[in-house]
From TrEMBL:
Organism: Belliella alkalica
Protein name, entry field: Cytochrome c domain-containing protein
Domain of life: Bacteria
InterPro entries, A to Z: Cyt_c-like_dom, Cyt_c-like_dom_sf, Cytochrome_c_Peroxidase/MauG
Stretches assigned to the Cytochrome c domain: 168-363, 373-516
UniProt keyword list: Heme, Iron, Metal-binding
Length: 516
């Protein structure tokens, strides 16, 4: 008899008598399970998906996700045991052959997830688990090629492990390189070689993709098509991605190579306005997800939706009548499988719940930058300069959206969203000319700046010192991190706060920021 049924048959007085000793001596594992985790939320409902995401900056082309029926007809993912990918010079002797002798091992049994600790542990497994083995970014031949590591300046652990992908063993002799895990973009190899999960990652993904396209001998048409799948937004004013595609193969590859570590042209964004890889540590307290605040974050269900959407289901979105991979609505609704990376299966709701629980559990490492007399002076300057208005302690964000230059906030938005109605003047390209664009940027949290970088939403500045350098506002400035592939100099405009401080005050302010 199930615990729920057994409890329901108890007389009320006896239930009360039993409850007191249970509270005194601690609930059993099964009772904890029933009271805490019996109802995993169903997250992809037609009603919930109507207004979860903000509209596009061009509202006529706001995302139309797949239906509840389509979503829940997708098969649930089977989670196999995975194995680390080594640089060829560091791979243990016989490792490759050993992998091919292994049988598949399923490592996640949802029926055994009983406590919060169980869910968090499973969530870490899922955070590292690659959802694609079709070669969405790189494949086996790339990571077994020494030139790949040299060309991309790939960060490695001291053991020579490349932590951004995994070997998936789906059966004896069936060894596939897995791409598109959360960890791919949200793992940082620290200076000492240790891994910081959930941080702004330093996976050189666009350089890796350029290497793959070039060494595979991809044709110009193929490179144009793939780049269109990822980034095209033909409804955007000026159609910047259409112009990029027209420049030809070599220019497109150079655009990929221009994106630095710490940024990544994920689908629906751009390699012309590449988004800084977000820091997930502390994300539980943020109200909006994506640099443009595309996804509202009101509860754990929203985080679960965000994970599912961002693990490639947005390739199935329609934007007006436009679909990134060329689907028609008739084809989408035909019931035939769509074999495109990340869209042919899905995480179960229980898996998404575990993943979200793990992400919520992420905590920062110990900060080596301890408070000092200099940083205490910087703390005063931070307040005097009004930084606390947008970067309000203790979260160091006011959790609001700020409109970009050129975007007129609809009146209805003030009632629906948290808007700080002043633009700080940063480059509007990402939020006005991409599929994920909303017309806004979210006010970022400053927590953990010491382990992050490069900075600003487009990763254009390598160091905090660059942020306060007035030279960056001039057209002859050479950005210290990202700069477009086809320019030599470019002003990094916007967020001009603190630029008039003297050098000592700037030094003190930076010292304070690094303690956060």
């Amino acid at each position: 008899m199930k615990i729920k049924e057994w409890l329901s048959r108890l007389p009320l007085w006896l239930y009360g008598c039993m409850l007191l000793p249970l509270l005194a001596f601690g609930l059993s594992k099964q009772v904890v399970s029933y009271f805490s985790f019996s109802d995993i939320p169903r997250i992809w409902t037609d009603e919930a998906m109507k207004d979860w995401e903000l509209p596009n900056s061009n509202p006529e082309y706001s995302a139309q996700p797949v239906s509840e029926e389509f979503y829940y007809n997708l098969p649930e993912r089977v989670i196999y045991k995975t194995y680390p990918v080594y640089h060829p010079d560091h791979e243990p002797e016989g490792y490759w052959e050993w992998l091919h002798e292994l049988e598949a091992e399923i490592v996640l049994d949802e029926s055994k997830l009983l406590t919060e600790e169980d869910y968090i542990k499973a969530g870490e497994l899922l955070f590292d688990y690659p959802i694609d083995t079709l070669g969405a970014v790189i494949s086996t031949k790339h990571v077994r090629n020494i030139d790949f590591y040299t060309a991309t300046e790939m960060p490695l652990t001291p053991e020579g492990i490349m932590p951004f992908a995994q070997w998936v063993v789906a059966g004896k002799g069936k060894v596939y390189l897995g791409n598109l895990s959360c960890a791919m973009c949200h793992t940082r190899v620290m200076d000492d070689g240790s891994l910081l999960k959930g941080a702004q990652g330093n996976w050189p993904g666009d350089k890796a993709f350029a290497f793959a396209l070039e060494t595979d001998g991809a044709s110009e048409r193929a490179i144009q098509n793939i780049t269109s799948f990822l980034f095209a937004s033909p409804f955007a004013e000026g159609d910047p991605h259409g112009k990029l595609l027209a420049t030809g193969k070599e220019a497109i590859l150079e655009a990929y190579r221009a994106v630095p570590e710490g940024a990544f042209g994920r689908q629906g964004t751009s390699i012309l306005f590449p988004p800084q890889a977000p820091n997930l540590i502390g994300v539980k307290d943020r109200k909006y997800l994506d640099h443009g605040g595309l996804g509202q974050h009101r509860n754990i269900e929203d985080m679960m939706r965000y994970i599912s959407m961002n693990q490639a289901l947005d390739f199935l979105n329609f934007y007006g009548d436009y679909n990134p991979i060329g689907l028609t609505k008739e084809r989408l609704n035909s019931g035939e499988p769509i074999f495109f990376p990340g869209t042919y299966d899905r995480h179960s709701d229980a898996q998404l719940y575990a993943l979200a629980k793990y992400i919520y559990s992420l905590s920062p490492p110990e900060n080596p930058n301890k408070p000092s007399e200099l940083s205490e002076s910087g703390k005063i300057i931070f307040a005097e300069q009004g930084c606390v208005t947008c970067h309000t302690p203790p979260l160091f964000t006011n959790n609001k959206l700020t409109p970009t230059d050129g975007f007129e906030v609809p009146d209805a938005h003030y009632d629906k969203y948290d808007i700080f109605g002043i633009s700080v003047g940063t480059d509007p390209g990402y939020t006005m000319k991409t599929r994920r664009g909303t017309g806004y940027y979210k006010v970022p949290s400053l927590l953990g700046l010491w382990y992050r970088g490069p900075f600003l939403h487009d990763a254009s500045l390598a160091n905090l010192e660059d942020l306060f350098d007035p030279a960056r506002l001039k057209d002859d400035y050479v950005p210290t991190a990202f700069k477009p592939h086809d320019v030599k100099t470019k002003a990094v405009k916007g967020h001009e706060f603190g630029m008039e401080l003297n050098e000592m005050d700037k030094k003190a302010l930076i010292a304070y920021l690094l303690t956060l």
